[in-house]
Amino acid sequence: MLNALDITTIYFCLFLSMFISAVTMIFVWLGNFKEKAAGYWSLTYVLAVIASVILANLDALGPQAVAISTTFSISAYMFSWAGFRAFNGQSVSIKSVIVVPTLYLIVVVPVLDYYAHYNLNVAMQSLVVAAIALVSAFYLVTNPRNRGLSMVYPAAVMLVVHGAFRLTLIYFIFSMPATMVDGRLEVGWWKFYLLESFLSTIMIMIGMIVLIKDRVEQRYKIASETDMLTGIANRRAFVNKAEQRLNDASEETTLAIFDIDFFKKINDTFGHAGGDQILIDFAKLVRKALPRDALFGRMGGEEFAVLLSGRCADHESILERVRHTIAVTSFSYNDMPITLTTSAGFASVKIAGDTFDQLFTAADCALYLAKRNGRNKVMVFVPSLRIRELLDEERLLYGDLPDPRLAVSAV
Fold this sequence. Notes:
Blueprint: H1 7-31, H2 36-56, H3 58-61, H4 64-87, H5 94-108, H6 118-142, H7 152-175, E1 179-181, E2 184-186, H8 188-225, H9 235-246, E3 254-260, H10 263-289, E4 295-300, E5 303-308, H11 315-328, E6 331-333, E7 336-338, E8 342-348, H12 349-352, H13 356-372, E9 378-380, H14 384-398, H15 404-410
């Protein structure tokens, strides 16, 4: 089957795949200009196009063309490596990208007669390519930011297969050395090399595009679930995640609501900019004081919610620690000191029920009592609180009424 394929046709297909990949990746980059990985991957395929053109014209360009083609090829893979680092949110130094092709030009080229040592040249290039492919796959599967991206594992598999092929190729290079005829290598494995380069170019390019698409969608999803001011979960995200956890929650699971005391006075005194800064500082401080597995979100305004799992030893102590931390912390805005306290109400699944609405209503009742009893307190929900809250609402609407609990006692 391979004998039926003309080497010129394979060269043309390889060039075409590189060119299409380069153009496609450039358009992807222009559509996602802030995505640095797309920029690096665009450079990868542009350099690969140049390398493939030189590779197809070795006879016309002369012996030095081998070194030039290899330099562009290694540079292309180094930018591919830089793209995977950028995709993972890791820093990229241009010096680190150009060091390998520079060393190749400075150290290897002067001592290598390429028409005499072309097999060694292909072997060195394959070793670099394999190393970069395997390292890039490792980046993808080990970075926590990539969890949930649909293309992570398929792309990693493609990179591993590509790297493994290049490592295997090194064995064939030395066991079945090629000869140079009219500027081209003549050996059985050379067509396999070109065809694998063609297929891996297309497949890895598709993988890169889907990875960028997944990352963009992930960012939109995170943005839709994140409170823009404080950076924690917004109300919708908190409720959704809390409901998921409550599906298999233990009886000790607890929902708490924190409310900043006299927050309106802060806004009136320091303006909304000062109030926003206090909300940001408050959220950071509470986040640090909570257990790592606690679910924390902003419900709106100055109200925050916390869901504590049953694994926590003493929920009331945890919430009291948060309250105390806020009370003793020195807040400030524009170098002006601000004293801050917070009130909290909490309810457990065992007492209030295992649905979010039940827990939230119960915790809100406890928060109401904490506010009513002087603020800067943590109160736990008990069933009698709901009766007390209803009575207080009736008094506000109709004035003082006989307490039905007293009437029951009289009977």
